[in-house]
Amino acid sequence: xxxKVLELEKDKVRLIVQGEGHTFMNxxxxxxxxxxxxDVARYNxxxxxxxxxxxxxxxxxxxxxxxxxxxxxxxxxNCDELIKGIKKAKA
Length: 91
Fold this sequence. Notes:
- The structure is a single chain.
- With 91 residues, the protein is of the alpha+beta class.
- 43% of the residues lie in helices and 29% in strands.
- It is built from 2 helices and 4 strands; from the N terminus they run E-E-H-E-E-H.
- The chain has helices at 22-33, 64-90, and strands at 3-9, 12-17, 38-44, 53-58.
- Strands 1-2-4-3 form a 4-stranded antiparallel beta sheet, with helices on one face.
- Helix 1 packs across helix 2 (64-90).
- The relative contact order is 0.19.
């Protein structure tokens, strides 16, 4: 996954997430919003085949990049748990 930083401030980041669509971006935004330090998390896909732009702003001048990384790790952990559950059900 290629990520391009469009804007980075102490409490704000705008990123382009190449090759992703609504499915991943909805999950990511929902997970980011679960962090109490997040003020705004949203994405926009301007045209049908364009890459999404993610905007995250935080409260109290918190750096948004570690918050995004933690959200991605939580998504990965949830997927790992689902895979384990499927393997148990299959056995």
